[in-house]
Design goal:
The strands form four sheets. A seven-stranded mixed beta sheet has the order 1-9-8-5-4-2-3, with helices on both faces. With about 375 residues, the chain is an alpha/beta fold. The protein folds into two domains: about 10-105 and about 110-250, 3-Layer(aba) Sandwich (Aspartate Aminotransferase, domain 2); about 255-375, Alpha-Beta Complex (Aspartate Aminotransferase, domain 1), CATH 3.90.1150.10. Helices cover about 40% and strands about 15% of the residues. The structure holds pyridoxal-5'-phosphate. Pyridoxal-5'-phosphate binds near residues 86, 87, 161 and 189.
Length: about 375
């Protein structure tokens, strides 16, 4: 059996090697390292892929979130509601801009932000909601957009983990994740298996709003709309031409990457069928709502930490995303939080374990991983 990897960047590279190599060398020979034609063409390609009016490339997914919030003109003290169970970047930029993060619990099945908890957390100071499409599965966007409309709030989708996913509304309309809210952010970070990763750092902001897109194009570039005229406080956040060249080579494969991940997920699901200590990831019935950025199990009635140790011993990589609720992180504690408001997150942090998930997993590996886990949790 091939050695099992959590992510397999090498195998993916081998498939597109010639195109990547020539396009990266082209950038080097052109010396247009910044704002080269590749950046513009990638922007256009991604706009087409997502059917969104504006893609604004930037340096990474954390910047993308921050810039989206700056573009919306959120002010210190404005409350921004987001999920307690996500990567820290989401809450970090809220705090950094001196907005007030309001963490709320998530749903036990999808791990995504709980709509009832959002409703409960709204105050006159609430200005925005940041749903995270966690592990590659779309949050309940119909309900979130409805609440946002009723309370006049912005919706910023943190789409770092779900690029390529398609959300199906209750009326049957299909929309790409990251094009439903007022604005969205994504990341092209290569490891931790972001579904569309470049070979360094990268990110982008998406919106259908022409005015907001214009504002954001200035924010990413030192607040300039005209050279050396700084109209707003901005940042310097660019996707470099080499990364754009890599992304141009990979974007045509994104759907195939997502399909391969789904195939691996289906095989895992099948292998874990009927296991009383293992809850497999929730599916909403549509095939395209989940792109399996992570394949995350809940271990119930067995010891997750002991399982993790056992997998180490067996050479099976795995991850615990996330081990500590954000509301318990030192940086984000707030006396207004009450443990009783986070029953689901508090439980998930003890139950979740993410298995190897990438486009190069083979049947033998999946079988070995599943059998090892099943044996252990029933032992
Ligand atoms: C990875 C990630 C980010 C940050 O992306 P970077 O490119 O690493 O800055 C933000 N939010 C979520 C949910 C992520 O998974």
């Amino acid at each position: 059996m091939k050695k099992i990897q959590m992510v397999d960047l090498k195998g993916q590279y081998e498939e597109i090697k010639e195109l990547v190599n020539t396009s990266v060398i082209d950038v080097i020979q052109s010396t247009a390292f910044i704002n080269g034609p590749e950046v513009h063409s990638f922007q256009k390609h991604l706009e087409n892929y997502l059917s969104v009016k504006h893609v604004i490339p930037c340096a990474n997914g954390t910047d993308a979130l921050q810039i989206a919030m700056m573009g919306l003109g959120l002010k210190p003290g404005d409350e921004v509601i987001t999920a307690d169970f996500t990567f820290a970047a989401t809450v970090e930029v809220i705090a950094l801009l001196q907005l007030t993060p309001v963490l709320v619990d998530v749903e036990p099945d999808t791990f995504n932000i709980d709509v009832a908890a959002i409703k409960k957390a709204i105050t006159p100071k609430t200005k925005a909601i940041v749903p995270v499409h966690l592990f590659g599965q779309c949050a309940n966007m119909d309900a979130i957009m409805e609440i946002a409309e009723a309370h006049n709030l912005f919706v910023i989708e943190d789409n770092a983990q779900a690029i390529g996913a398609t959300y199906t509304s209750t009326d049957g309309t299909k929309t790409k994740a990251g094009t439903i809210g007022h604005v969205a952010s994504t990341s092209f970070f290569p490891s931790k298996s972001k579904n569309l990763g470049c070979y360094g750092d990268g990110g982008a902001i998406f919106t259908n709003d022409d005015d907001l897109a214009h504002t954001i194009r200035g924010v990413v570039n030192h607040g300039m709309y005209q050279r050396y005229h700084h109209d707003v406080v901005g940042v310097n956040s660019r996707l470099d031409s080499i990364q754009a060249a890599v992304l141009n080579a990979k974007l045509p494969h994104l759907d195939n990457y997502c399909n391969k991940r789904r195939e691996a997920a289906n095989k895992y699901d099948e292998a874990f069928k009927g296991q009383e200590h293992i809850i497999v990831p929730f599916r909403d019935g549509s095939d395209d709502n989940h792109v399996f950025h992570q394949y995350t199990l809940r271990i119930v009635g067995a010891d997750r930490d002991a399982l993790a140790q056992h997998l180490n011993d067996k050479g099976i990589p795995h991850g615990v995303y996330y081990p500590i609720p954000l509301h318990n992180q030192k940086a984000y504690q707030d006396s207004r939080y009450n443990e009783a408001d986070f029953p689901v997150t508090n439980q998930l942090v003890k139950q979740v374990i993410s298995l190897p998930m990438h486009t190069e997993l083979d049947d033998e590996q999946i079988e070995y991983i599943a059998t090892t886990i099943i044996k252990f949790v029933n032992g």
